[in-house]
Design a protein that fits this description.
With 129 residues, the chain is mostly beta strands. Helix content is 5%, strand content 36%.
C-alpha cells in the first residue's frame, strides 16, 4: 500500500533499527515509528517500524536521530523498548519503502537467496543489469 520496497522481520532480541542508506533525515514524526531519508542522489526512503505503530503515539520508540540530520548507512536511528512492545503484542515487521526513486534507480531488485540474517551494513538490493 505504501509503495515498492521490502520488509524485515526483526529478531526477537533486536532493540535498535538502523539506517538502510546514508542521507538526510527529512521526516521524523513525533511517534518516532518511522523515519524518512533522502539520499545524496535524491532517492527517498521511508523506514516504517511495525504494523499500526503510529497508534502507540511514540510509546516504545526513541529516536536517536533528529530532523535534518545527515546520517550514515548502518547508523542507529530508533531504539525500541522491547518489553513495552512485547507486552502489547506489537508486530515489529519493519518496512523499507522506496517512496521516490530517481529515474536511473527504477530497476532495483532484492538480492535472491540472501538468507534469513541481515546485519545493519548488508546490501540487500542491487541494480538490475
Amino acid at each position: 500500500m505504501m509503495g515498492d520496497g521490502f520488509a524485515i522481520s526483526l529478531s526477537a532480541t533486536a532493540n535498535v533499527v538502523f539506517a538502510p542508506v546514508a542521507g538526510k533525515v527529512v521526516s521524523l514524526p513525533e511517534s518516532h515509528h518511522a523515519v524518512g531519508i533522502v539520499t545524496k542522489d535524491g532517492d527517498e526512503i521511508l523506514v516504517h517500524i511495525g504494523i499500526d505503530t503510529v497508534n502507540l503515539n511514540g510509546q516504545g520508540f526513541t529516536a536517536v536521530v533528529e530532523q535534518d540530520e545527515e546520517i550514515e548507512q548502518g547508523q542507529e536511528i530508533v531504539k525500541l523498548d522491547r518489553d513495552f512492545l512485547k507486552n502489547r503484542e506489537v508486530d515489529l515487521t519493519t518496512m523499507v519503502i522506496f517512496t521516490k526513486l530517481i529515474p536511473e534507480h527504477q530497476d532495483w531488485k532484492l538480492i535472491e537467496n540472501y538468507g534469513d540474517k541481515v546485519t545493519n551494513l548488508d546490501t540487500i538490493v542491487e541494480k538490475q543489469v
